[in-house]
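Same chain as my last thread, 437 residues:
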Amino acid sequence: MRLLPLSAAVALALTGQARAEGLLELYEAARAYDATFQAARNQYDANVARADQSLAGILPQAGLSGSINRNAFNLDLGSVDRKYTTQAVTLSASQPLYRPANLATYRQGKRQAQLADYQLTAAGQDLIVRISQAYFDVLAAQDTLGYVRALKAATAEQLASAKRNFEVGTSTITDTREAQARYDLVLAQEIAADNDLRIKRLALDTVVGKSNTQPTPLATPLFVPEPQPADPEAWVAAAEAASPLIQQARTNVEIAQLETEKAYAGHKPTLDLTANVGETRFIGGSTTSTLDQRPKTGAVGVALNVPLFNGFAVQNRVRETLALEEKARTDLEGARRLVTQQVRTAYFGVVSGLGQVRALEAAEASSQSSLDANRLGYQVGVRINIDVLNAQTQLFQTKRDLSQARYNVLLGHLKLRQANGTLQPEDLVRLNTLVQR
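reply #2:
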């Protein structure tokens, strides 16, 4: 008996008329629902808004102030004794002309906006891998359940054959008991496989926000491609410019350098353009007159501030920022090393997985031939029942392992691109062409 992939049949049996959905469709659903990605997107919006606040330091500032007071005026000699009210309103504005610390803060804000973009990119790539992992886990669980049920049918057939042969005296009770034991074991495996499929589907439902999600099975026979380019160092080289982890670390170095520039600015003077216009209304007189007055004032000028001594705060701040700048450079080097290791690990994982797929494909053919030979030998009396049962189990395990290995290689391609930072939703578009039509 040949055991074929039954994921589509199992899916239909479990979900009735549920419509199967492809990987790309489920990814779009996950982008709108997944809590982890939504949190990352909200954090991105917050980081961009925080970065935009740095623009305020180089833009004009304006304010309006007003006051109202009741005044009492009395000379010691008692010759004048009166009360009056003053109402004042002032409009003031200033424009920084030379504030190096503010300019460095503004440039930091632009880097922080870039940093937020890199962080969101990393979160998006993580979502692609997570939805793909959940998708393939469901397909692998469906395949496993299909193989277990096919093995159960084959074992049941072998059990019936053993019982018939025992009844006619051509086999011993041992064959029947061995077949019964193997059948009972397969029943337990079926229960475990069915529960595993249920758990895997719940995990996928949690990511996409749907109930009883039914992923579309991949086309068979499945072509598993080689990684291109077929050189791990080429993938490592691409990571230098594409990896969000390296880009974040590099941006942190630039932010630390600007923080040092801000610290040095503590020694530098500041220059602002200032202007104000105001009006004061005296009701009931003033200190110099008994008449109501409404004088107006206005001024335009520049304000210069030159720091002279602040208790060595600037010097110590510079020392602190220089140390943090060196730490940021060390973190960048650490990020490069980590990404290099991850890329090479992912690359060799794909290559090893491809070799495993080829070996399991050969083992599948050999196991099928072994099963056919053992069944024929059992019919002519040169093989016993346990030989057939073992061959059936071996074929099942080989098919299950082959199915899982193929899914692992496909997922490995995505993880390889994630490791070097080139993973895009378009990769799911290409992968989506492998689903059954």
